[in-house]
Design goal:
By secondary structure, the chain is of the alpha/beta class. The chain folds into two domains: 165 residues, Thiamin diphosphate (ThDP)-binding fold, Pyr/PP domains (Rossmann fold); 128 residues, Rossmann fold (3-Layer(aba) Sandwich). It has 13 helices and 14 strands. The strands form three sheets. It has a seven-stranded mixed β-sheet with strand order 3-2-4-5-7-6-12, sandwiched between helices. A five-stranded mixed β-sheet has the order 9-11-10-13-14, with helices on both faces. The chain has a two-stranded antiparallel ribbon with strand order 1-8. Helix 1 runs parallel beside helix 8, helix 9 crosses helix 13 and helix 10 crosses helix 11. The two termini are 27 Å apart. Pfam families: Transket_pyr, Transketolase_C. This is Transketolase family protein. InterPro entries: PDH/Transketolase (IPR051157), THDP-binding (IPR029061), Transketo_C/PFOR_II (IPR009014), Transketolase-like_Pyr-bd (IPR005475), Transketolase_C (IPR033248). It comes from Oceanobacillus aidingensis.
């Protein structure tokens, strides 16, 4: 069976940095605000190549978001860069009151999301950011699956008038999309057809879900993979259609199973089309630092765990 996963891997930061530099050069209103993490998030490419568009705000995320709100009221389009953990928890009050409520045109890049943060430890990991941001009225929440989709999502956010949170990861992931791919807000993307069950995944977990589906295909289990880059707004029509088609849903995310994609999908299905659902994500526990593969296994979000979840949900049909 031919895999749809590319052998080539790129970090999301690669696509992010080149797109951010281009936007800052092409649009006089685009400015980058950095929470002193430019070398990690790769926002420093703007500091190095277009320094008049780069504002170093220091380790003061709350102040950075307040400044971004102020700039947005003048017609500037601020792009704020920090780790997802710091944006979603340290500065959430400023984001809600000063940006989301008035629907200001601020873009937020949450880097180093999820578990795999390069051994930085639990203080720098974010398993709650999707849950937090999707509760905010007026907020768009996006989690691209590879470097190319990061570029497309950023191009969309640049054209969109309102607050956007973009969740990106640190490490390299397989390329899922080509240059012809077009991101659509509120739309899911079918990466693999199947008839027995559907995996609905987002962000970094999508490539692992494809790997799991291909493994199951070799065992005679036909699994659809539905990538959900837009978590808010959510493609509820695609979720219901998948439930009607396969009658069994697995959700997969590198995030807590509480409040994230799994919760959003379950909320949709319980109201529109109740079918068996198994959620793959980090259960109600704190994380820790460790090697990538060990972390995926310990917190039960590896491709094998996704495949096992499919087998579990099939027993419930």
């Amino acid at each position: 069976m031919k895999t749809i996963l590319s052998a080539e891997k790129q970090t999301m930061r690669d696509g992010l940095s080149k797109t951010m530099l281009r936007l800052s050069q092409e649009d006089e209103n685009v400015y980058v605000l950095d929470g002193d993490l430019g070398t990690s998030t790769k926002a420093d490419v703007v500091a190095d190549n277009n320094p008049e568009k780069f504002l170093q705000m220091g380790i003061a995320e709350q102040n950075m978001m307040s400044a971004a709100a102020g700039l947005a009221t003048t017609g500037i389009q601020p792009w704020t860069f920090s780790f997802a953990a710091f944006l979603s928890k340290r500065s959430i009050d400023q984001i809600q009151v000063q940006i989301a409520q008035p629907k200001l045109n601020v873009k937020m890049i949450g880097g180093y999301s999820g578990l795999l943060t390069g051994l930085t430890g639990k203080t720098h990991q974010s398993l709650e950011d999707i849950a937090i941001f999707r509760t905010l009225a007026n907020m768009v929440v996006l989690a691209p699956g590879d470097s190319k989709e990061v570029e497309k999502v950023m191009e969309f956010a640049h054209q969109y008038d309102g607050p956007v949170y973009i969740r990106v990861a640190r490490d390299a992931y397989p390329i899922l999309f080509d240059d012809d791919y077009t991101f659509e807000l509120g739309k899911a993307v079918t990466l693999k057809e199947g008839t027995d069950a559907t995996i609905i995944s987002t962000g970094t977990q999508t490539s692992r879900s494809v790997e799991a589906a291909e493994k199951l295909e070799e065992e005679g289990i036909s699994v659809e993979v539905l990538h959900m880059p837009s978590i808010k707004p959510l493609d509820t029509e695609a979720i219901v259609k998948a439930a009607e088609k396969t009658g069994a849903i697995v959700t997969a995310e590198e995030h807590s199973i509480i409040g994230g994609l799994g919760s959003a999908v379950a909320e949709t299905l319980v109201e529109e089309k109740p079918v068996p659902v198994v959620r793959v994500g980090v259960k109600d526990r704190n994380s820790e630092s460790g090697p990538n593969e060990a972390m995926l296994d310990k917190y039960e979000i590896s491709p094998n765990h996704v495949a096992d979840a499919v087998k579990q949900v099939l027993k419930k049909k």
